[in-house]
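Recall that a protein's primary structure is simply its ordered list of amino acids. Everything else, from secondary elements to tertiary packing, is in principle encoded there. The following example makes that idea concrete.
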Amino acid sequence: MREYYNKNRSKIDRYLFLLLVMVSFYLFFTVFFIYFAPFFIGLIIALIMEPVNRFIVSKLKFRRWVSSLVCLLIFMAVMGSLGAWLISMLVRQVSGIVESMPNHISEVASRLDEANLWLQRHTENLPEGWYMPNIEEILPVAATAVIGDGARETGLRALGSVPDYFLNIVIGLVSAYFFMSDGKRIFGFVKKTCPEWIRKQMQQTRAGLVRALSGYFRAQGILMVIIGIISIIGLMFLRNPYALLLGLLFAVLDFLPVLGPALVLLPWAAISLIMGNMQQAIILLVIWGIITITRQVLQPKILGTQMGAHPLASLMSIYIGFRIFGILGLIIGPTLLMIFIAIRETDGEVTDSSSGEYDISGI
C-alpha cells in the first residue's frame, strides 16, 4: 500500500486535496457559515478592493493601512450612494402610487362590483339554503389564510434581527479593513498552520484556479450584459422613462441566485394586474420569462466556454450545487468545478512533464 502511494503520490494528494476542499465547503456553508458570515463578507470586500488598494500603495505611495482605510471609505461611499439611489427611486415610485391611489381604489372597487355581479348570476341556481359570500367577505378571509400569523411573526423576527444585521455589517467592514491592511500576515499565518502537502497543492493549483475564477466572472459579466440589454429593450417597449436605469439594476440583480430580476419584475407585474393594467403585467411577465430562459440556456454554455469545462459539466455543477447547498449552491457548485479543473490541469501538467513534454519547474 505504501509502495503504491509513493508511486502515485502526486495524483493521490491532488484528489485528497479535492476531497478536503469539497468537505470543507460543505461544512463551512451548511454548519459554520452563520458564525463566520461577516468575516467571509469582509474577505470578499477585501478581494474586490484589492486592485484599488494595490494601485494606491504603488502609485500614490500611501502606507498600506492608510490605503486600506481609503479603500474602505470608497467602498462605503459607493454602496451608500447606490443604496440612497435605490431608496430615492423607491420613494418616488411609492409617492406616485400614493398620489394615484384614489383612481386605483375606484378601479379596484369597480372590479369588485363586477365580480359580485358575476357571483350573483352564478349563485341563483344554487339549492335553497346555500349561501355564497360576496367578494368583500371572501377577500379578508383569504388574505388572513394566506398571510395569517406568519406575516406578523416574520415581521417581528425581521424587526428583532435589525440589531444583529447592523452588528454583522459593522464586523464585516472592520474585518474587511484588517484583511486589506494586514492580509499578508493573516494569510501567511494560515499558510504556516496548514500541513505541507496542503500548502504544496494550493501553490500548484493557484494558477489554474485564478484562470478558472477569472473565466467564471467573465461569464457572469457576459450574462449580466445580455440580461441588461433584454431588460432595457423590454422596458423601452413599455415606454418606461427609467428603462436604462432599471435595465442596469436588473443586470446587477441577475447576479443574485434564483431571485435576480424576479425580485422586482414579479411584484411589479402583480401590482399592474391588480390595478387593471393587463398589458403591462403580461409584458413584464414576458420580460421575466425571456430573462429566465436566456440565463438557463446560456449559463452552462458560457460558463463552460470561459472556464474550460464542457457545458454539461457546468450544468451539473449548478444543479448539484443547488441540491446540496440550496441557493448558495448556484455559486458554490461552479466554484468546486473550477477547483476540480485546476487540479486536473495541474495533474495533466505533472503527468506530461514526466514524459518530457512540459516543464513544471516554475510551479
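Residues 348-363 have pLDDT under 50 and may be disordered. The two ends are 28 Å apart (CA to CA).
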